[in-house]
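Consider the following assembly input.
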Amino acid sequence: DTGVSQDPRHKITKRGQNVTFRCDPISEHNRLYWYRQTLGQGPEFLTYFQNEAQLEKSRLLSDRFSAERPKGSFSTLEIQRTEQGDSAMYLCASSLGGSNEKLFFGSGTQLSVL
Amino acid sequence: AQSVTQPDIHITVSEGASLELRCNYSYGATPYLFWYVQSPGQGLQLLLKYFSGDTLVQGIKGFEAEFKRSQSSFNLRKPSVHWSDAAEYFCAVVPYSGAGSYQLTFGKGTKLSVIP
C-alpha cells in the first residue's frame, strides 16, 4: 500500500491556459473521487469513478472541467481556459467500496491561476 | 441537502489539556458521520466514523466522538492533547452507503493550535 499519489504537487498557470492533473490510486481500489478545497473551506465533491466509468458529477464541475479514468487505474483531471476562481487544492481519493467504505486521500495538487 | 457546521474556526489548547471539537449536521435521516484530520502538506486522514450502533466511537490517535441524535451533533474529543495533534480537523457526513458513491459533505474545518 503506497498510498494515493497526485502529480504535480503544485501548479502555477496563467489565466486562460489548460492544466492537467494526475491521480494514481491505491492499487486494486476500484473507486476514485476528485474533490476541490479552497482556502478556509472543507473539500467539495467534484466527481466519482467506479472503475473506468464516471458515474457522478457535481454541478461544481463546469464544462471546462473534464475527468477521465481510461483503464480503471489512474485518473486525470483537466481544466480548460483556467480562471482565477479555479485556484484551489485538488484532492483525489480512492477506495475499495462496499458497506464499510473508507476513502484514502492523496496530498493534493495546489493550483494557482495568475 | 445535507450540511455540516463546525462552529469553531480556530481553537488553541495547552499540551496535556482535554479537547472537544464541535460538529453539527443537518439531514433528514441519520447520516454516516466522519472526522478527518489534515496536516499541512498532507492529505486527509480518517480519524473515526459512525455508521450505526454504539454512539461512542473510538478512533485512531486516542480520539473519540459521540453521536447525539437529539442534538444532531458528532463532537470529537481527546482527553489529553499532544503537540503533534496541531492540525485542521474536518467533520463530514454522507447520506448513503453501500452500492453508491461516498459524496462526503465536509464542514469548513477547525484549526487546532497546541501550546507547549
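The mean pLDDT of chain A is 92. Ask yourself how this observation constrains the way the partners meet.
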